[in-house]
Amino acid sequence: MAAPLSPIEESTTANPPRFRWLIRLSVAYAMLILAMTGAWFAWDRVAQRRVNDEIARLRGLGQRVLPEDFNNHPAVAPGDNAASVYLAASNFTLTKGQDDFTNNVDWSVRLTASELAVLRSIPHDCAANLLQVRSARKLNQADWGRVYNSPLINVMLPSLSPDRELANLVRCDARLSHLDGNDSAAVESIRDELHFAAMIDGPSFTIIEHLVATRISALGTELAVDFANDLKIGPAPAASREQVMELIRELLDTPLDTALAEGLRGEQAMQLDLVQSQPALASMFGVTLIGPAVRLSAVHSTQQMSRRIAAIDLENFSKSTSVKGVQNINSDLTPITQANRVFEQLFGSASNKYIETHFRHKTERRAAGVMLAMRLYEIDHAGAIPASLDELVPKYLPAVPVDPFSNDKRPMSYVREMTVDGVATPVIYSVGRNGVDDHASVLYDPSAGRHNSNETVHGQPWDRQDIVFPLVRLPLTEPTTKPADGDSE
To answer: Residue 400 — very low, low, confident or very high, per pLDDT cuts 50/70/90?
Structure first.
């Protein structure tokens, strides 16, 4: 056995033993890095291939997936384009006082004289814009001129904010008309609002467009609900019977239904487009090393979204949300596991919320239609109300509308008298998100996550066990702070 080398001898030897092991470890480490790099590129190729396969699958179904698909749609002749009229009508600027009023007004509180003066000034200053909105009702096609580029998630929809401001303008005009007893004009403003929403939703390709259209339609529907209980029907300036019947027909129509699924398909396209953009991935998730996992997550999420879309039954909420999303991501999961589930977390749970928002609004539109029919019946029968909703058919309603939240497509329900917020009133009601008829219960639904609230049923019906629409309005409350000039409406 050779004697160990001295330090001096070892330092002068070409390959001393301690450095041989270091070299071996370095080589092994380099080979491991190469193997991991190769595995990553193989993983990335598999992920990209699955993304490409998913794009091909969706396009094979006739869906829009790539940005160029969204830009390929029939043009609308300038003279037939309602969008161009609405875009011109949205060209107005409110004063600071008017803007503060529209953003902060509480319509359940009696307006002070100064607030009423501001309300009157808004339609006065924007009279030309309101005339343009009315003229758009003659047109039933819309091309908003939106251009979709990659990444779709960054596509700006610049008209959507002015759209909301224009809808608020129309709402103010309707409120003022009703306050002044001009219910003929108030009904026409509600119809303006519903048509505006339909023109936004008709050509919509994204869920954001659909939600904006739903919100604008909800503004008009809320007006119909609020006005139905004391709407004046008769010779002008009261609303004519024909106007009210036409409004009922429009409320019971379903112009927003087809855009729900189209918006969810737009979500699929956005996800697949996003994971093909390295800069977008890096800006959204901070790193690209987990890019393959994120791509695979997007594929799984879009496949799950296809199942959600296929499950949608526009007359059955429970069935439409029966495809369950993944569980929430726990903080102790590894980054790779989180990446594998990130798209399900971001988009899976949100899609049920989009669907519920749609069903809520659809329910409110139908309730508003029934409430207006009840108002016509009441006027025709010297203030009496029907024993059942069937008495409204066929003179006031073509049929009692289906409750969208019921599991068996049962009609909307009716109770002739119950106490709501301390007021005895008839109510129209839906069974609500739990699908169970709780006999017009206004208790909070435990699944809604809100068990204690000071809000009235009139102000917040949606988180109750049943969704109740009272046919008697609460009296307006007085302002909490008396105006400095002592004025009140």
So the answer is: very high
**What's at 295, amino acid-wise?**
R
- Tokens standing for 27? 């080589």
Instruction: Point out which residues pair with 141 in neighbouring strands.
Output: 81
pTM: 0.87
Residues 6+ apart with CB under 8 A from 398: 252
Sheet of strand 413-420, all strands in order from the earlier edge strand to the far edge: 413-420, 423-430, 467-470
SS3 call for 444: strand
Is the Cβ–Cβ distance between 412 and 370 less than 8 Å? Answer: yes
pLDDT tens, residue by residue, 441-470: 998 887 766 555 557 888 788 889 999 999
Rounded Cα distance, 416 and 429, in Å = 11
- Alpha-carbon distance of 91 to 80, in angstroms, equals 20
- Residue of 129 and 39 predicted with greater confidence: 129
Which pLDDT does position 337 carry in this prediction? 54
Distance from the first to the final alpha carbon of the chain? 111
User: Over the range 27-43, which residues count as b (16 or more CB within 10 Å of their CB) and which as e?
Assistant: eeeeeeeeeeeeeeeee
DSSP letters spanning 365-388: HHHHHHHHHHHHHHHHTTT---SS
The pair of structure tokens assigned to 209 is 């467009």
Q: Are 443 and 464 in contact (CB under 8 A)?
A: yes
Alpha-helical regions (H) of 61-182: 67-70, 82-89, 96-104, 113-125, 127-136, 160-179
Give the confidence band of 347 by pLDDT, cuts at 50, 70, 90: low
Cα separation, 407 vs 23, in Å, equals 71
The pLDDT tens digits for 360-380 are 999 999 999 999 999 999 999
Distance CA 461, CA 145 (A): 38
* Pairing of β 467-470 and β 423-430: antiparallel
Rounded to 5 degrees, what are φ and ψ at 304?
Answer: -65, -40
Give 458's contacts (C-beta < 8 A, 6+ positions apart): 108, 420, 421, 470, 473, 474
Cβ(416)–Cβ(370) under 8 Å? no
Is-contact 371 360, C-beta < 8 A?
A: no
Beta carbons within 8 Å of 130's beta carbon, 6+ residues apart: 89, 123, 169, 170, 173
Q: In which element (H, E) is residue 425 found? A: strand 423-430
In degrees and rounded to multiples of 5, residue 161 shows phi and psi of: -70, -50
